[in-house]
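stage 2 :: seqdesign
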């Protein structure tokens, strides 16, 4: 599951071809209640689809490919790959962009008790998406 939230200071000047957002990924890894304390290893890569101009808004479909490697915990030790999709919107546009750049500005996990204690693993990824 992915949740998208805007980030940045309210007083910062908006840039028409750039959005800053927080992508929060919550992935179910295994049964809750396990006693594992070793944190999973993870990576995230991004791809994007064809941008679409609709009136004065450009919509860019984004796919996050999340790879999480867990050690053996209650029989759930393995590599899992999750594909999460969301769309970034850019208002005030007059043309379809020729390039899209997705940059991770910082990542954090909210897993204080190991991957299986809660049964889910949460990753927060602060992103900047730029179109040109």
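stage 2 :: out
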């Amino acid at each position: 599951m992915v949740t998208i939230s805007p980030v940045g200071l309210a007083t910062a000047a908006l840039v028409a071809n750039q959005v800053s957002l927080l992508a929060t990924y919550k992935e179910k890894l295994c049964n809750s209640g396990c006693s594992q304390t070793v944190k999973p290893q993870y990576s995230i890569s991004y791809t994007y689809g064809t941008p679409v101009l609709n009136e004065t808004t450009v919509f860019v479909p984004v796919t996050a490919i999340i790879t999480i490697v867990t050690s053996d915990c209650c029989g759930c030790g393995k590599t899992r790959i999750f594909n999460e999709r969301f769309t970034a919107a850019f208002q005030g546009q007059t043309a379809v962009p020729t390039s899209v750049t997705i940059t991770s500005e910082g990542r954090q996990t909210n897993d204080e008790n190991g991957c299986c204690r809660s049964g889910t693993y949460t990753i927060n990824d602060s992103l900047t998406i730029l179109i040109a």
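stage 3 :: structure notes
- The mean pLDDT is 84.
- The two ends are 29 Å apart (CA to CA).
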